[in-house]
Each structure stands twice: as structure tokens, then as C-alpha cells.
């Protein structure tokens, strides 16, 4: 499949229903597997932290679950290298099959003495997420043509965000009703079904290329980062998105004083507000391809970041202008819906451009480099925000997030004429 692609993406025909990607049998199969992958996420993700809290009574122990999920970030370059060197279909099928006994091992947990096993499974579970991201990027590239990429990525994002609407409810509700072992069984079954579906995936994969002996192992490992830096406008867009996602780490910390001091409500309402954000994200997934067709990828990234900054603006006003709770809650919900709309627009457009400008057998390493570039700044800024929140007003953190996101949008807008 040639990598010399045209930058122009034709608009979908008027008679077509749904993204053109769904006319490809292999992509429909991949999307079916993606449904079960997200169902597994919905069932297990939050339940693990709740389970640890119940076993130990410790907020710190429960919080470390999320640290265990993030630690595989440091394995991402090696995972991306693996995805570029073997059959991605077989790699994903094998990875999901391995997750079945890994997840089922949680039935051995009886009390806090087996906490180490929960953390170990969580770490492997997090690594599987990076494996999926790296391998799936290459599969989508092999399955779809240029004009189908935006619609395909938008559809996968819609599925992902739809399940995120359910994730605060599904796993914890099943946990309360039937206990942790029921959640474990459902999750293991989802991984098993995903493995079977991926094993049957019909795709003509780009054959693996031999390792470049001139650069050595570490040079091969860093090839994804080098490509992001050299392939205009990917480098500038990656830097802009890193600034924006890093800044949202401050918002992750500011959300709790925002609710208590600004909105005057209990933090237990966070799940409701997150669901409102999820509605915006689902809408974004449904409309992202049309926006990319109309504006192009860099301008869509800029639009998404601008909408995010606009959506966060009410969070600074709330608690400042003295509005009653009856007015601030709808204002906050509208803002979160805009944040949920803008973020997927930016990500879908960026991923589409990245796939389009990246050689097939570099997709895994470039996807891994992207994951590091976007997730590491967010983690570091969350830590910084946690250290600062006791000393400064939460609105300062929100304002800083807005400024950084708007700056990132301006950087993305400057790249719109450099797409090749």
C-alpha cells in the first residue's frame, strides 16, 4: 500500500449511511472485537479500585490501582517495536487470549494479603491497552484507504466513548449485585470473545520488514519518535497536543474543589457530570469524519482544542460571579459537554493524519511514541497540580489549563498549510 497519499479527502457521498469504513468486512470484524474490548474495560476498570478500597479501607491503596494502570507507559516503545515486527492480527489475538487466565487469577484474591496479585493483574491489563493501541493502528491502516480513515477512527471513537458512558455504572453495579468474581468472569469472557474475533479477522497485512542493522536496537526503538519529529506537520501537532493533554492534568486535580467550592455540590455528582461529558464525546465520534473532510486534519485538531478551551471557561466564572447553584450546574454541564466534544475531534483528526503519513510497519512505534508524548505530560502535571492545589485557588489551575489548550490550538492552526 503506497504511502504517497493525497492530502485531500473526498466528502462522503450523499446516499451512504454510516462511515465508508463499515463497507470493509475486515474493519467490521475489527469493530466487533473493539466492542468486546471496551465491554471488558467497562466491567473491570473502576471495579478494581473499588475492590481494593473495600479490602484495605485505604484511599492510597485504591489510588495506586491507577498508578499500576499507567506504569506500562514505560514499556510502550518495546510494545510498539513488537507490533511492527510480527503479525498484528496474531499479536492482538494472542494478547487477548493471554488476558483470560491473567484476569481469572483474580478469583484467588480473598483478602488484603493478595493485594499484590491485584496490582500485578492491573499492570498487565494496562500493558494490554498499549498493545491494543499500537497494533490496532497498523491494522486500521492496512484495512482502510485514505478516504475511509477518518470515518473509521471516528466510528471506533464513538464505540469507545459510548462504553465510557457506561463504565462508571456497569462494573460497579455488577460488583455490588454479584461480587467481584462475577465481574472477573464477565471480563475474562470478553477477552476470550475478542481473541476469537481477532483470530478470524480478514486483513491483508503489510509484511514485517527486517530490522535495520545500521541503526541498532535502540535506534529502531526510537524510530517512532524520530518520525513524529521529522514528518511535517506531525511534530508540531504532537507538541501542541502534548501541551493540551498535559494541561488537563491540572484540571483533573481542580475538579474536586471546583465541585465543592464553585458548584457547592458533593463530589459524588462527579459521575453524572462525567456522563454529560461522555454524551459530547459520543457526538464528536459521530461527527469527526465530516469535520475532517471539510476542514482537513490540522484545522480539525485546532477546532477541537478551541472548543475544549471554550468549554472550560465556565469553570473559571463559576464561584466568581456569584451565580446560584441552579444556574451553575447547567453551565458546568454545558462546559463539560463542549470539552467532551472537542477532545475526540482533536484526537481523531490527529490519529487519522498520523496513520496517513506513517509507513505501515512503523505504525506501532509511532503510536507508542504518541501515547508517551500525550500521557506522560498529563501524569506529571497531575502530580504538580496535586502539590499546588492546597496553596493556590483552583481557578488559577483552570485558567492555566485554558491558556495552554488555546495555545495548543493556535499551534495546530499554524500547521494547516504544511500537510503533505
Description:
The two termini are 17 Å apart. The chain folds into two domains: 22-206, MFS general substrate transporter like domains (Growth Hormone, Chain: A), CATH 1.20.1250.20; 223-414, Growth Hormone, Chain: A, CATH 1.20.1250.20. Residues 1-16 have low confidence and may be disordered. It has 420 residues and is mainly α. The protein contains 15 helices and no strands. Helix 1 (25-56) runs parallel beside helix 6 and helix 4 (88-104) runs antiparallel to helix 7. It is globular, with a radius of gyration of 21 Å.
**C-alpha Rg (nearest Å):** 21 Å
**Helix content, binned percent:** over 70%
What percentage of amino acids are in beta strands? under 5%
Low-confidence stretches: 1-16
Shape: globular
Number of helices: 15
Distance between the termini: 17 Å
Provide the structure class.
mainly alpha
* Nearest-integer average pLDDT: 84
Order of helices and strands: HHHHHHHHHHHHHHH
Summarize the main sheet: none
In the CATH hierarchy, the third-tier topology of the largest domain is known as Growth Hormone, Chain: A
CATH architecture of the largest domain: Up-down Bundle
Number of structurally distinct domains = 2
The total of beta strands comes to 0
CATH class of the largest domain: Mainly Alpha
Amino acid at each position: 500500500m503506497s504511502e504517497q497519499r493525497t492530502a485531500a479527502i473526498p466528502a462522503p457521498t450523499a446516499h451512504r449511511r454510516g462511515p465508508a469504513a463499515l463497507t470493509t468486512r475486515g474493519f467490521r470484524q475489527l469493530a466487533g472485537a473493539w466492542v468486546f474490548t471496551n465491554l471488558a474495560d467497562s466491567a473491570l476498570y473502576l471495579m478494581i479500585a473499588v475492590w481494593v478500597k473495600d479490602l484495605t479501607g485505604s484511599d492510597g491503596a485504591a489510588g495506586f490501582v491507577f498508578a499500576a494502570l499507567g506504569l506500562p507507559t514505560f514499556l510502550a516503545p518495546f510494545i510498539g517495536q513488537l507490533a511492527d515486527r510480527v503479525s498484528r492480527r496474531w499479536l492482538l489475538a494472542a494478547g487477548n487470549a493471554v488476558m483470560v487466565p491473567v484476569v481469572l487469577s483474580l478469583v484467588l484474591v480473598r483478602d488484603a494479603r493478595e493485594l499484590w496479585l491485584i496490582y500485578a493483574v492491573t499492570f498487565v491489563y494496562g500493558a494490554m491497552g498499549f498493545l491494543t493501541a499500537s497494533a490496532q493502528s497498523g491494522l486500521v491502516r492496512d484495512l482502510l484507504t485514505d478516504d475511509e480513515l477518518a470515518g473509521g477512527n471516528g466510528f471506533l471513537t464513538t464505540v469507545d466513548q459510548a462504553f465510557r458512558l457506561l463504565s462508571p455504572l456497569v462494573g460497579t453495579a455488577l460488583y455490588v449485585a454479584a461480587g467481584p468474581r462475577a465481574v472477573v468472569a464477565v471480563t475474562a469472557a470478553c477477552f476470550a470473545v475478542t481473541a476469537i474475533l481477532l483470530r478470524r479477522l480478514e486483513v491483508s497485512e503489510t509484511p514485517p520488514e527486517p530490522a535495520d542493522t545500521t541503526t541498532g536496537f535502540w535506534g529502531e526503538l526510537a524510530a517512532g519518535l524520530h518520525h513524529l519529529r521529522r514528518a511535517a506537520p506531525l511534530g508540531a501537532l504532537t507538541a501542541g497536543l502534548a501541551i493540551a493533554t498535559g494541561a488537563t492534568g491540572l484540571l483533573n486535580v481542580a475538579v474536586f474543589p471546583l465541585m465543592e467550592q464553585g458548584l457547592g455540590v458533593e463530589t459524588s455528582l462527579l459521575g453524572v457530570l462525567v456522563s454529560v461529558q461522555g454524551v459530547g464525546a459520543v457526538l464528536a465520534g459521530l461527527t469527526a469524519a465530516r469535520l475532517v473532510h471539510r476542514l482537513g486534519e490540522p484545522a480539525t485538531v485546532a477546532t477541537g482544542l478551541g472548543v475544549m478551551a471554550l468549554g472550560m471557561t465556565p469553570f473559571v466564572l463559576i464561584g466568581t460571579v456569584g451565580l446560584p447553584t441552579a444556574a451553575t450546574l447547567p453551565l458546568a454541564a454545558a462546559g463539560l459537554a463542549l470539552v467532551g466534544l472537542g477532545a475526540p475531534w482533536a484526537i481523531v483528526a490527529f490519529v487519522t493524519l498520523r496513520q496517513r503519513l506513517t509507513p505501515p510497519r512503523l505504525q506501532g512505534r509511532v503510536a507508542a511514541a504518541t501515547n508517551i508524548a500525550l500521557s506522560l505530560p498529563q501524569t506529571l502535571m497531575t502530580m504538580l497540580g496535586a502539590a499546588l492545589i492546597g496553596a493556590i485557588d483552583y481557578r488559577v489551575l483552570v485558567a492555566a489549563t485554558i491558556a495552554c489548550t488555546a495555545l495548543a490550538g493556535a499551534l495546530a492552526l499554524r500547521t494547516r498549510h504544511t500537510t503533505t
